[in-house]
Amino acid sequence: MLAQRENPGARWFSRVCLMLSLCLSFGFTSGCASTTQRWAEVNMQDVSYQNLYASVLDMLEMEGYFVRKRLPDLGEIETEWLRGISRREVRGPSRSRVHVDINRAEGRRRYVVRMRVEEQIVRKGGMLSAGEHRESDWESFPDNFEDAEYLAAKLRALLSEYAIKDEAVVEPEAYYR
User: What dihedral do alpha carbons 34, 40, 41, 42 form, nearest 10°?
Assistant: First the structure.
């Protein structure tokens, strides 16, 4: 049996095509991938929409966030980036901004206020990284759900007479196990 000679040009071409397809597929998936959004919710009733929207704006201002986008007709609020230091898995420069959605719920003057704290970090240099960072230095990080829950609790306390109490039912048998 005669051995077939493989064309070196064809081998090179197939390797280049394989590498190109891997790079393109990685680029498209990493570019489209996003961190999981985690929203904290507060349910309100018997409060006017205008008072609720203004209270959310006031609460964000009290926490040091500057609002950059207000869409009262859609019930949306977005803040500017607030710089800080991430103390979670990655220690170093971080920035966060708050997204708020206010939606009408079933019932008379009932609303669901959803809050999300988006976070970005700078990995390069970690704690030693100082000064200004280019936009390309920031990378998305999982939402800071603890801060979103804190803001939701703060709004619930601020408007406590309008907040719907979400009570968890604990079965006695399950409690003692």
Answer: -150
Q: pTM of the full predicted structure?
A: 0.69
Query: Three-class SS string for the chain?
Result: CCCCCCCHHHHHHHHHHHHHHHHHHHHHHHHHCCCCCCCEEEEEECCCHHHHHHHHHHHHHHCCCCEEEEECCCCEEEECCEEEEEECCCEEEEEEEEEEEEEECCCCCEEEEEEEEEEEECCCCHHHCCCCCCHHHCEEECCCHHHHHHHHHHHHHHCCCCECCCCCCCCHHHHCC
Q: What is the pLDDT of residues 14-31, one digit of tens each?
A: 555 555 554 444 443 334
CA angle 61–42–158, rounded 5-degree value: 45
The residue whose two tokens read 């609020």 is: 77
Amino acid at 5: R
Q: 118: pLDDT confidence band, cut at 50, 70 and 90?
A: very high
In 3D, which of 141, 139, 48, 61 has the Cα closest to residue 100?
61
Tokens 């990995």, residue?
123
